[in-house]
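ESCALATION

Customer reports they have been waiting on this structure for their group meeting. Please prioritize. Original submission:
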Amino acid sequence: MAVEDGTNTVEGMAEAQQEATETLAAAESTEALAVRYPVAPGVRLKVRSGPGTQYQLIKVLPLDSRVPINCQKPGEWITGTYGTTNLWDNIANGQYVSDAYVNTGSDGYVAPRCA
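Update from on-call: job pushed to the front of the queue and completed.
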């Protein structure tokens, strides 16, 4: 038997709370499954504000870092551990690293092009 609270039933509120809990768990699960690619061994990779060395240095990643790739865009040509490329990986809002130092297992795009 449902107990009225004036706008919703107690049962309805419990169902809504359960749905919210399941939605949060699914979101956390998706985040945990996001692909992160390893940076080349022994490399402290520089993160820049755009796809080239002329862009502002934002930070330097620690050794043995793994990075997500949200999108990729062409930029300055760089030679690194994994060859020569003009692909730059967006790892966060306004943060780019050269794909020449990220082990994606591919010489091409592994993520959508950045807008």
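Sent to customer with the following note: Helices lie at 10-32.
Escalation resolved.
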